[in-house]
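Open question from group meeting: does this chain pack into something compact, or does most of it stay loose? Before anyone orders reagents, we agreed to write out a predicted structure and look at it together. Recording both the input and the output here so the notebook holds the full record.
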Amino acid sequence: MVCESWTAKLDTYLDGELSKEEMRTFDAHVHSCPSCSADALTRVQMKRTIQVAGKRFSPSAEFRRRTQQSIAPKPQRSRRLGWMFAAAMAVILAVGALTSTYVGTRSGRDQVFSEIADLHVSTLASSSPVDVISTDRHTVKPWFQGKIPFAFNLPELQNSDFSLVGGRMVYLEQAPGAHLIYDVRKHHISVLVFQERSLPASLDRSPKKLPFNMETWSQGGLRYFVISDASAADIDRLAKLFKAAS
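Structure tokens returned:
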């Protein structure tokens, strides 16, 4: 098959472990090959399912009780040793609580970025990527009224390299939001907008390992994501247009 050499490196591509030149070549191929595009979407969704499944279960109260009983100090130990053991356990529990909080925040943040990438890939792979098709922001913006619980502004694109394709309604962390598609020099850029309060905290820092360029910020109670295989400079310019419009 023609795409066998591409398919062999697909997982490496999705993990962002190829060289910059290979990533650009792979990006161009995936966007032009329906077979590899569909395969990429399937693998992204599988990775996401595995991540969610790995976080689904937590120790029960009974398990915690049995564990605490097994490590509790024996009655014959001296009072001094008992206090030392209790102090050590307190330190361990405190460190564990801080670690759990940090890991939980990081995991929640990474999960959001993973879902944003999924939305971008699945939309581009769809036969109908937008529900409202228009290059006119005054047509696209009103379409979202009554469909999402917030309002946002779209930038004026005159004298810029960007063009509006349209938009659709999407969900992130079970919260409704807007997904807008823009074109710039044969690249598709996704702009996603959600209410800030419906998402985890600490989202201002984008993940390092991501097969796309991304910029995210909070403004006016809304969280914006701009993601694409376009250059970081194009992502930054479109982000600035949105920031100015808001």
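Observations to bring back to the group:
Residues 175 and 218 are 16 Å apart (CA to CA).
Helices lie at 4-8, 10-14, 20-32, 34-54, 61-71, 79-125, 137-143, 232-245.
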